[in-house]
Structures are given as structure tokens and as C-alpha cells.
Amino acid sequence: MSAPSRPLALTVLLVLLAVTALLPFVLSNFRLFQFTQVFIYAIALLGLNMLTGYNGQISLGHGAFYALGAYTAAVMMDRWNVPFLLTVPAAGVLCLGAGFLFGIPALRLEGLYLALATFSLALAVPQILKYFEHWTGGSQGLVLTKPDAPLGLRLTPDQWLYFVSLAVLVFLMIVAWNLLRGRTGRALVAIRDHPIAAEAMGVNSALYKSLAFGVSAGYTGVAGALSAGAIAFVAPDAFNVFLSITFLVGIVIGGLASISGAILGALFIQFVPNWAQDISKAAPWAIYGVFLIVFMYTMPRGIAGTAQALWGRLARADVRSSPAKGGLL
Amino acid sequence: MDIFLQQVVSGLATGGIYASLALALVMIYQATDVVNFAQGEMAMFSTYLAWSMLNAGLPYWVAFAATLALAFVGGLLIERIVIRPVENAPVLAVVIVCIGLLVILNSVAGWIYSYIQKPFPSPFPNAPIKLGNVVFGAHDLGAIGITLVVLLFLYVFFRYTTLGLAMRAAAQNPVSSRLCGVRVGWMLAIGWGLAALVGAVAGIMVAPIVFLDPNMMAGILIYAFASATLGGFTSPGGAVVGGLLVGVIENLVGTYVRFIGTELKLTVALAIIVIVLVVKPSGLFGRVVVRRV
Q1: To the nearest whole angstrom, how far is the Cα of A295 from the nearest Cα of chain B?
Q2: What domains can be seen in chain A, in order of their start residue?
Q3: A329 vs B229: CB contact, 8 Å cut-off?
Q4: Are the beta carbons of A123 and B218 separated by less than 8 Å?
């Protein structure tokens, strides 16, 4: 955050928030749903970015935690009639625990090997979901009813979900910002950039790494739970390996190790495939692939990182003082 | 007992295919320290090329040879054009580029050939071969045979040719090799070409079993990962043994462990990978990599 003037940045932020708060009353239901999905993706990307962008642990399997969150919410709503709003934190806590546990063996896996293990996890998810048919409804999936707004609020379910997702996103962004700007964030970045030096400085690498895994999975699980509500349907094949790759695309394009990048990445993965679909069913993925490679060559810090660098240069601020810019790439 | 033998033999057949792909992965890993996530999709794409040629009326073995040649050139070009710019970049960048490649190959294949499954011919007769009470599919035996031939070819190439020696040298110590006049960059490219070629063999051998479609290699790739991990990413021989072992384990577990059956097959591969990485990260035959700080 090398913003030249804080008040200006704050004003921009408030205007943006006001516009997003008004959108539900002017947009069609379908457009609204798309924006809800953007918020949900942004939460998931925020989670993945903490792990991969800040902490340098490569996960190609975050679709698995998204699926776990979605199914937690779906099963709770479908089998036990738990209200939607309660399922979201429950999914978050469950995924936090699951992520922490998965993070422990992941401690022993560096770089490529972690990518490999998580990639296999992503490939295996649909099968595992189909296997527990009793809970998950097998390959048919579970059909849910869209949660209504609580009594007294005159909102359609779509508008209600939009606001819930937006609120959760804003809340989790503030949490992430507070988590990452201080001691914890510096520890995570230090582990990423030079694990041995970080340990020598007294950073408990094992604890921070598995915590990062847990929090990251928790974020992604919350996103999954929200998506179960927004789509009102869960099915195993929606959580295939390409979902995990989509998340990777999102953080690379939005910007590794950047909080605002999560929103840019989410906008990209929500809207670009829609436009590309007009060319061919396969086109979105071809475009994703090309973007992944081209970004790695030319803008390794993504849209957010590049914009920040330009902004800093314009304001003649010293960008190098930004803690987010490490030796990542 | 007959069922057991039967399962072992068909396990060896699929294991041979895993072994080929695992070998391709290990070859690239050894030469460039890159785990090629796009290996499966490269094999899939080569198989589609073979399918196109067969459809155009070429005889099987001509199409086979032409596909291998094209795969070699394709792998070479991919290394030169796509991988080279990130050669010295951190792991994350390389993984992302490989994933990008995976996605591009997958979608381009879907674009050109559609996502509909296509049957793919086998060069071997249909009739099963009986040995006692155990029945072998001719294609299974053929696949094992072809895998062995490829392995032998690679062994001879790396052991007894100057080019093979130069490639091993480049992988082991790039700086000294360069001083001795080995063109390290080109050795890496040839390594990618060879890996693509071996992958193409795996693709052509597996296509008659799983049918041809753009996503056919996803499951095979995870097994190849499991094989390479089990054998050790630093050991080509280990990758082959790992592949055969994983093929047999997959079949036996599917047959004898009731709750797994065929529905959790991919999860078995995941379990193998995680267990090996946690218990013995260097694999059965790999050497422990010591890093100087």
C-alpha cells in the first residue's frame, strides 16, 4: 500500500462500496447472480493467495476445499434443515480444520511435490464425493432451495445472497489485511522468500505454514458454502480439477501476494469465459492457458501488482518499500 | 488363485503404460528439475494426431512411427518456445506455465476433435490368449511388449551413444558440460522431445482401452505421478518398477478391498503419493538430494 494519499484511496474505496451496494436494485437477476459469484470467487482467491502468493506453498487442489465447504453447507441444509447463514461459518471452521490437518503432511513437501500432491487431490475429489453417496447424493448431486431473506427484509433471494456474499467478502478482506500487514504477514513472506533465514530469525516455520494452510482452506470453504447457496445445487463433477486450475488462473492474473488482486482475478474468471464461450466451448480454456503463460512472462505480479508499480512510479513513491514485493518472481 | 494371477497380469499391462508416462516425467525432471504437468495432455494430443493419420488411411505402423516423430519435434519446440523463458525462474512460475500448457493442449484438442469419445484401434489381434486358466488380452501383452522395447531403446540410447552421454552430463552438471562443449540448452530440448515421444507411445497404447477423448489422460497422469513418486523422481529404472507396481496394486486393491472397488481408484493413487511423500520422499530407488545451504 504505497498509496500517495490515504484520503484519496479511502474515498475511492467508499465510492466503490456505495456503487456495489446499489447494483442489486438496477441489475437483472442473472447479472446479479454473476456478481454474487464474483464475490464468492474473490473469497476463494483470497484464501489461495494467502497460501500460494504470500506463503509460497503451491496448491493446485483448492477446489477440494471449495467442494468440502459447498457440501458441508448443502448437507446441513438438505439433511438437517440448518439455516443457510449458519452453514457458512460451519463450513469455514470445518475447512480450517481440514486444511490445518492437510497442512501437516504438506510441511514435508516442498515446491513441486506439494503441487503434485494437491494436483492429485484435485483429480480425486469428484470420485470421493460420488463415493459417499449416502451424504452427497452421488453423481446426481443435491438440489437445494435458495435461501430467503430473513423476515422484515424485502429482498429477493438473489439480492439477499448478493448482500450476504458482499458482506462476507468485505469482512474477510479486512481480516486478511490485518493478518497479512503485520508480524504474521511478514513471517509468511519470509518463509516464502528464504525459509532457512526465516527459521534462523526465530519464525516457527512449521506452525506458520500449517496455519496458512488452515486459514487458506477456511476462506475457500466459506466461498464454497456461499456458492452452494447461490447456485442452490451441488454436484461432484462441478468440483473437478479444472476448478482448482481456475483458482490458480485467478490469483496469477489478479496478482500473486495481493489482496485487491483477488477481486480483479475473480472478475476475470467470472466474465472472460462467458465472452469467450461465444467463440467455442473450448475457447475459455485456451484463453486461460495463454493468459497464464503470457502473464508469467510479462506481468508476474498480475494486474494488481503491475498497477501498483505504475501507480507508485507515477506518484514517485518508493515502491520497493512495499512488503508485498519480495523475491517471489 | 486364478483371479489373483489374472489381476496381476492385467495390472502389469496397465502398469506398463503408467511406467512409460512415469518414465517421461522422470526424464524431464532429471534433465530440467521440472515436473511436467502437461505430460499427459502432450500424450493425449499425440494420440489424436495418430488417430487423424489412421483416419486418413495410413497403415497402423506408419502412422505410429509418424506420430512418434511428430511428438518428438513437438516436445522439442515446446521446450524451446514455452519452457525456455522460465528455465531459471522459481518453481511456482514453472508449475504455472506447465499448467497453462496443459489447459491449452486440452482445449485445443477439444476444439479440433470435439469432446466425444472415439474408439481407437489396437494393432494386436482381438482373440484372447489362454495360458492354463488365465486369459490374457492380446492388447495387454502387446502393450507390455512395446513398453519393454521402448525402455530397451532408451537404455541403449543413454548408455551407449555419445548424444545420450552428453544428455546425461548436461543434466548432472550443466556448467561443466557447457565448458566441455556440450550444448546444454539443446540437450534439454532433446530431453523434452524424447519424453514427448515416450508419452505418445503410452497414449497410443492406452487409447484402445480407455477410448480417445481430450480428458483421457487425467486419470493416467495421476497414476504416472504415483509411479514416479513411488519409484523415486531421480531414478528412471525406479519409475518403471514403480509403474508396474502401481498397476498391480491398483488392480489387486480394486479386486480384494471391498470398500474401494473401482469407484475410488484415483483416490488409491492419491493415497500412494501422499504416503510415499510423507514416509520416504525420495521413493524406493531415488537418491536423497542433499542441498548445500
Answers
A1: 9
A2: 6-145+152-321 (1.10.3470)
A3: no
A4: yes
pLDDT, tens only, B30-42: 777 777 888 888 9
Contact indicator for B218, B109 with CB cutoff of 8 Å: no
With an 8 Å Cβ cutoff, are A117 and B101 in contact? no
Question: Where residue B268 sits, what CATH number does that domain have?
Answer: 1.10.3470
Between chain A and chain B, how many beta carbons pairs sit less than 8 Å apart? 138
Answer whether B131 touches A (CB < 8 Å): no
- Give the span between the Cα atoms of A208 and B106, in whole angstroms: 36
Q: Is residue B289 part of a domain?
A: no
B70-125, pLDDT tens digit by residue? 999 999 999 999 888 887 777 788 888 888 899 899 888 888 888 888 888 888 87
For B180, other C-beta atoms within 10 Å of its C-beta total 11
Residue at B123 is within a domain: yes
CA B211, CA B18: separation in Å to the nearest integer? 16
Whether residues A109 and B281 touch (CB distance < 8 A) is answered with yes
Is B287 part of a structural domain of the chain? no
Residues of A in contact with B219 (CB under 8 A): 123
Q: Which residue has the higher pLDDT, B88 or B176?
A: B176
Of B97, B103, B270, the CB nearest to A124: B270
- Compute the C-alpha angle A266/A272/A278, nearest 5°: 150
Greater model confidence, B101 or A109: B101
The C-alpha of B141 sits at a distance from chain A's nearest C-alpha, in angstroms, of 29
Q: Domains in chain B: how many in total? A: 1
For residue A58, the chain B residue with the least C-alpha distance is: B92
Question: Where residue B291 falls among pLDDT bands split at 50, 70, 90?
Answer: low
* b/e burial code for range B48-62 (CB count within 10 A of at least 16 → b): bbbbebbeeebeeee
Q: What is this model's ipTM?
A: 0.80
Best A49, A239, A244, A296 residue to mutate vs chain B (most B CBs within 10 Å): A296
Q: What is the chain B residue with the closest CA to A131?
A: B263
Q: What are B130's strand-pairing partners?
A: B135
Tell me the residue range of the domain where B192 lies. 2-279
